Write the structure tokens for this entry.
Amino acid sequence: MRGPPPGPFRPGFFRSPLRGPRLTAILGLTLLGLVAIVAVTGFLSHAAYQPDLGNNAIVEPDLPLTFFDWPTGPSWLYALNQGLHVNAGLVAVPWLLAKLWSVMPRLFAWPPVTSAAQAVERATIALLVASTIFLFATGIANIQYWYVFDFDFVKAHYYAAVVFAAALGVHLVVKLPVALRSLRGRAGSELRDSPLVAIAPDAPVLSRRALLAAVGGGSAALLVANAGESIGGPLRRIAFLAPRRDGGFPVNKTAAGAKITEAMTGPAYRLVLAGGGGEIALSREELLALPQATHTLTLGCVEGWSTRQQWTGVPLLELARIAGVRDPSQLTVGSLQPKGILRQATLAANQVADSRSLLVLKVGGVDLEPDHGYPARIIVPGLPGVHNTKWVGRMEFRA
Amino acid sequence: MKRYGASPVHLLAHLAALALAAWALLQIPGLGNWQRIVVWLVAAVVLHDLVLFPAYTVAGRLVGRSPYVRVPLALSALLLLVFFPVMCGKGEGAYTRVSGVEWDGYAERWLLVSALLFLGSGILYAVRSRT
């Protein structure tokens, strides 16, 4: 049999003295902890959009992930979920790069396939690496509003995440025992024989501990650069590279962007309540004359930024009563916004029933600004930001 | 299972995972512009394994072996790799359209933080090499 082709396929090509099963185990287990957070929060976010209700589905509820009611408390639940998703994802980047670096000699193993078992293993690893980098690249571009991909981000991110979860699961079946064995006990002879260990190592530049510290330093730098936008308040300004370090009360849709005109929101504005047979139209003055409640609640965006505000408005249950529906099972809220998949959202019974769920007329004691949804918008504690419909024109309660 | 080369658990676990992954991949042709998703999945591996990895390996060799140079350089490059879209204003149009505000100073802040990293490492090196 002929020998391996030149270059990285030759034994001795990789010379770092740091590579070895123990380093890969440490990197892999740390990365596992981080991507587990990212994956769980990602699938939870899918559930939080309640794709099985009304026309909510951006991604069809095709996997059994939406079997529970998304809770309304604590109000920062969704902000926390997305803060973890985005920031744990950023923190994982250097661990991912280091982990891939540590196993790079395996990519160029020669012969490339020695058994059927190894062939299927390599195929799943190809899926794992492809889906992982795809998820990181699309997610990182998306939080920076760089829509360079001309496909549907949400759907592609979701199905790639399913590929990732499947491939990671089987990778753990195969490699978790190996990783734990490498960490336990002293490096035995089978570890020294590992194909990760350099045959002709260079003199060390860094100790393994220093390398891990540098990777952790990379995580810390990315966390400081971004986390402020997730926590909000004064920390927002410290987040020196966060896409949402702008202060105040950020929006993800301006009135102009949503094509909301003054004619829609002026004196002719009426909120239509439906559900109990007929329809009832209320002006903003009539809404202001109804019983009001004030709550301080956190609004969290899927992109990982959040804002905490004092909201004043009519409790949704009060509007259900006026519409003539006792204990509504669902509420579909429609915006005046003429276009866009997110111009309406359907809420579940537990969300309408929460006394803190409001049709908001004022924020911080003053009238809503046009960009924040004047004349009226929804706030439901724990709900994904974009489902808190702005410029509400119609509310349809279902018994 | 001598032929296969591993235990039945190994085979069954892989079959289960590959079946689920195949299901997810088969949803992709139902999406708009799905060919681009496939291109991105393949490009993800190629760009990492055959572009990024060789590039930073060569860069590491070029800057020499001192960790006092390599570590701050790697940190600065990491911030650039992750946040270059915002630094280069890649999403500026979309960002201003949705948020009503404008981006400002990202590349400048990255340069200043990089300067701090190099300066800090230089001071550390100077102090440590004196003692």
Residues 25 and 38 of chain B are 9 Å apart (CA to CA). Chain B touches chain A through 64 residues (CB under 8 Å). Residues 34-62 of chain B form the longest helix (29 residues). The mean pLDDT of chain B is 95.
